[in-house]
Amino acid sequence: MIRSQLIQAIAEENPHLTPRDAEQIVGTIFEEIIEAMARGDRVELRGFGAFSVKKRDARQGRNPRTGESVQVDPKAVPFFKTGKLLRDRLNGRA
Q: Which of 14, 16, 51, 77 is most buried by a 10 A CB count?
């Protein structure tokens, strides 16, 4: 499912919302998740999962094309851990 399909599904399931309202809701939710993660906060959606940020330390890497060593800077990467309800539904238990 892509973002536009999610917006369409929300608009269809909630006839009192226009597609533009549904788009604004989805955009706001995504923006709040992004802002929270940018601050280093954890975002938990019960039954679905938790988004968090993991820090990767600086390290020596290798350029695959030339084989030469390169310094890789430290960085933050997004991490998602599924919730129990989601795992159970994916495995046919609920």
A: 51
Would you write out the chain's pLDDT as a tens digit for each of its 94 residues?
Answer: 999 999 999 999 999 999 999 999 999 999 999 999 999 999 999 999 999 999 999 999 999 999 999 999 999 999 999 999 999 999 998 6
The pTM of this model reads: 0.79
CATH topology for 47-89?
HU Protein; Chain A (4.10.520)
Q: Where are the domains of the chain?
A: 1-41, 47-89
Separation CA 29–CA 52 (nearest Å)? 16
